[in-house]
Design brief:
Length: 141
């Protein structure tokens, strides 16, 4: 079986990096991907989907160093389902409405703005060799 998702969007906040007890770097950030279209009624519509991205090892350190809120990125990876539902993570907002987000474990992050215009960084297969050392539920934060 094989799964791959490709997302292009903008960071919704600055990345947050932590180190696992074994010294492995992990960085998390959110990406908003929007699509716009004109409906049959002639009115413009917009739909934004949020993704929570998890990046590991050297690529995590590089993403944390060069990405900031608003940076445009291309992320390739796999969807990480909620262990309880098998789908996106669900939560209740402060106003009582339900919210959800899709979690993605990144295999590759390509910078599309800022330094990426000068070549950028996309990582290499050597830097992400399979599954992370620990799952997110084991991250001490």
């Amino acid at each position: 079986m094989y799964q791959k998702i490709i997302i292009v969007g903008n960071l919704g906040r600055d990345p947050e990096m932590r180190y696992m007890p074994d010294g492995t770097a992990v960085t998390n950030f959110s990406v908003a991907s929007s699509r716009r279209w004109t409906g049959q009624d002639g009115q413009p519509h917009e739909e934004t989907t949020w993704f929570r991205i998890e990046v590991w090892r050297r690529q995590a350190e590089t993403a944390n160093q060069y990405l900031t809120k608003g940076s445009k990125v291309l992320v390739e990876g796999r969807i990480k389902p909620d262990p309880n539902t098998g789908g996106p993570r669900l939560w209740t907002r402060q106003d009582g409405t339900m919210g959800s987000n899709f979690e993605v474990v990144a295999d590759m992050v390509r910078f599309l703005s800022g330094r990426a215009e000068e070549g950028g960084y996309s990582g290499s297969d050597d830097e992400y060799a399979g599954a992370p050392a620990q799952e997110e539920d084991d991250i001490p934060f």
